[in-house]
């Protein structure tokens, strides 16, 4: 938000492309109670009009070294959202969900379907890369959610444990 006062339109517009629109910045993180998400939503069309895109190599993107320590503290989020007066203690119980088969769609975003990097019969583990965006196109990298053997279809990767 500080950049709005100092940056040019193009600088602000290109930065908005990295916003996932989760609204966490507006509802939780902004100490000035501003609305960064709306700024990003309004500037994304400007970025598209100007042909601003990510120019780097998607494989070069790595998580911030302190990502593990940047998680949202739930107590502060509950306070910020004004939910502290509600005492919801249950009935909650632990449930372990262990599916034998998952159907991982290759189109999970506004862009084009991802291209599989695995083939039918391959064995994968949780977190393994299943598919990548088409070169130079908008898309998402898709990862395995369970260990198992894959079957690739036109629109999905099916994993059987």
Structural notes for this entry:
This protein has helices at residues 2-6, 9-16, 24-29, 36-49, 74-80, and strands spanning 101-105, 115-116, 123-124, 129-132, 142-143, 148-152, 156-160. α2 (9-16) crosses α4. The longest helix is centred in the N-terminal third of the chain and has 14 residues, at 36-49. The chain is 25% helix and 16% strand. The mean pLDDT is 83. The chain folds into two domains: 2-80, no CATH class; 101-160, RNA polymerase II/Efflux pump adaptor protein, barrel-sandwich hybrid domain (OB fold (Dihydrolipoamide Acetyltransferase, E2P), Beta Barrel), CATH 2.40.50.100. The protein has 161 residues and is an alpha+beta fold.
- Provide the structure class: alpha+beta
**Roughly what is the average pLDDT, rounded to an integer?**
83
The helix/strand order is HHHHHEEEEEEE
Number of strands: 7
Sheet of most strands: 4 strands, antiparallel
Helical residue percent band: 10-25%
Low-confidence stretches: none
Across the major sheet, the strand order is 1-7-6-3
Cα Rg: 20 Å
- How does the overall form come out from the CA principal axes? flat
- Characterize the quaternary organization of these chains: single chain
Strand content: 15-25%
Number of helices: 5
Number of domains: 2
The N- to C-terminal Cα distance equals 46 Å
Could you give the topology of this structure?
Elements: H1 2-6, H2 9-16, H3 24-29, H4 36-49, H5 74-80, E1 101-105, E2 115-116, E3 123-124, E4 129-132, E5 142-143, E6 148-152, E7 156-160
Antiparallel strand pairs: 1-7, 2-4, 3-6, 4-5, 6-7
